[in-house]
């Protein structure tokens, strides 16, 4: 298992960053490695996120001394979405099957979580996001078959998409974690435009289900001084609370969004007028 640390930045910090420096600070290029747990700890609201890709044996996230606790979820909650082949999550000895797009909310004080794959040649890819928690809420499996997506956007603005809400007040309780799965329709490319900020919450994005030659241009920075990262399949990025949140692809794609911060109100965002973008 490996975990790298990314530190927080102010808008002034990135003003003179080169492309290489922006990628070094905000882009995570390797999320899923067969047989490995690959995590990133960002000091933006102390979120931990990354991939667990079991092959011939079960994997678990074993962090304790790094967090100053006895076990990983002693003071944290965890969200999981499988974007790979079929597998299972075993929580304190109870096993639940996880097909592609199935999710799970795992509450604070859960001691043992293991991840397995049914097929070594088509391993499960568990995308995991964990944030600090103050209260224990029940563990909940969130099956894709039970989710009715929210349809939004339109073809003429190139942002027709379906939003699957997983860890959300409409679905299950959590302390501060929100997590979901957005699928862009064929012919659409913007994940949100006009763009927005939410000073009260930071966010991470995982882009995937992309063809090898497809790229996403993920925009960050303040509305009047935007930057961008060019991202490929199964890569993730950190989006600070002060940054705009938007991206556009060379073709349609799918992404997982995860947020934490002051509230769990999905619609709490500050839209940016198009005239203010620079």
TrEMBL record:
The answer to whether the entry has keyword Heme is no
Q: How is the cofactor bound?
A: Binds 1 zinc ion per subunit.
Q: Which InterPro entries match?
A: KduI, KduI/IolB_isomerase, KduI_N, RmlC-like_jellyroll, RmlC_Cupin_sf
Q: Tell me its cofactors.
A: Zn(2+)
EC nos: 5.3.1.17
- CDD domains assigned: cupin_KduI_C, cupin_KduI_N
**Pfam families attached to this UniProt entry:** KduI
Q: Does the keyword field hold Isomerase? A: yes
Entry-linked Gene3D superfamilies: Jelly Rolls (2.60.120.10), pectin degrading enzyme 5-keto 4- deoxyuronate isomerase, domain 1 (2.60.120.520)
Query: Secretion signal: which residues?
Result: none
State the pathway, as annotated in the record: Glycan metabolism; pectin degradation; 2-dehydro-3-deoxy-D-gluconate from pectin: step 4/5
What is the top-level taxon of the source organism? Bacteria
Catalytically driven reaction(s): 5-dehydro-4-deoxy-D-glucuronate = 3-deoxy-D-glycero-2,5-hexodiulosonate
Q: Where does Zn(2+) bind?
A: 196, 198, 203, 245
Record's function text: Catalyzes the isomerization of 5-dehydro-4-deoxy-D-glucuronate to 3-deoxy-D-glycero-2,5-hexodiulosonate.
The family note in this entry says: Belongs to the KduI family.
Q: Which NCBIfam families match?
A: PRK00924.1
Please identify the protein, giving its name as recorded.
4-deoxy-L-threo-5-hexosulose-uronate ketol-isomerase
């Amino acid at each position: 298992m490996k975990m790298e640390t990314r530190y927080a930045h102010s808008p002034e910090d990135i003003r003179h960053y080169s492309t290489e420096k922006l990628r070094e600070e905000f882009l995570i290029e390797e999320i899923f490695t067969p047989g490995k747990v690959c995590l990133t700890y960002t000091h933006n609201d102390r979120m931990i996120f990354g991939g667990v890709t079991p092959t011939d044996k079960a994997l678990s996230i074993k962090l304790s001394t790094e967090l100053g606790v006895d076990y990983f979820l002693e003071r944290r909650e965890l969200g999981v979405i499988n974007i790979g082949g079929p597998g299972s999550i075993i929580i304190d000895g109870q096993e639940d099957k996880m097909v592609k797009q199935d999710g799970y909310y795992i509450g604070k004080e859960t001691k043992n979580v293991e991840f397995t794959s049914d097929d070594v040649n088509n391993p499960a890819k568990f995308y995991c996001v964990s944030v600090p928690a103050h209260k224990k809420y029940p563990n909940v499996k969130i099956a894709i078959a039970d989710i009715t997506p929210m349809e939004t956007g339109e073809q003429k603005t190139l942002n027709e998409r379906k939003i699957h809400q997983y860890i959300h007040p409409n679905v299950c309780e959590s302390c501060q974690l929100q997590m979901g799965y957005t699928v862009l329709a064929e012919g659409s490319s913007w994940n949100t435009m006009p763009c927005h900020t939410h000073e009260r919450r930071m966010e991470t994005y995982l882009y995937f289900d992309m063809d090898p030659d497809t790229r996403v241009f993920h925009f960050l920075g303040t509305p009047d001084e935007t930057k961008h990262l060019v991202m490929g399949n199964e890569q993730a990025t950190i989006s600070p609370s002060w940054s705009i949140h938007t991206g556009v692809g060379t073709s349609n794609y799918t992404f997982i969004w995860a947020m934490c911060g002051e509230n769990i109100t999905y619609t709490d965002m500050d839209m940016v007028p198009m005239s203010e973008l620079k």
